[in-house]
Amino acid sequence: MWQVIHNAYIHSSTSLRKSLFKRMCTHVDDASPRVSYITASLYRELQKLKKKTSKANVN
After folding, report:
1. What does the alpha-carbon distance between residue 21 and residue 26 come to, in Å, rounded to a whole number?
2. How much is the pLDDT for 45?
3. Taking the C-alpha atoms of 37, 16, 12 and 9 in order, what is their torsion angle to the nearest 10 degrees?
4. Chain centroid to CA 18: how far?
5. How far is Cα 51 from Cα 37, in angstroms, rounded to an integer?
6. What global pTM score does this model have?
7. Radius of gyration (Cα) for the chain, nearest Å?
8. Tens of pLDDT along 6-59?
9. How far apart are CA 57 and CA 45, in angstroms?
10. Closest by alpha carbon to 17, among 35, 43, 48, 39?
11. pLDDT score for 33
């Protein structure tokens, strides 16, 4: 499942990413702390990937 989200994130536009993350956060607020922890870790991983891909594009 994470791979699907990851692929969708990489191939999506910035505005879509922002709205996706906002939507995830609003759902997480109502959910258990475990889900919010998973979402936060996923977001951090995606940020790392974004930095790597932007560095790769510069080179």
Report:
1. 9
2. 82
3. 0
4. 9
5. 21
6. 0.38
7. 12
8. 666 666 666 666 676 666 665 545 556 666 677 777 888 888 888 877 776 655
9. 18
10. 43
11. 64
DSSP state letters, the chain = -HHHHHHHHHTS-HHHHHHHHHHHHHHHHHS-HHHHHHHHHHHHHHHHHHHHHHHHHH-
CA 29, 34, 35, 37 torsion-angle sign: positive
Per the document, the length of the chain is 59
pLDDT at 44: 82
Show Cβ contacts of residue 2 under 8 Å, excluding neighbours closer than 6 positions: 42
CB atoms within 10 A of CB 1: 5
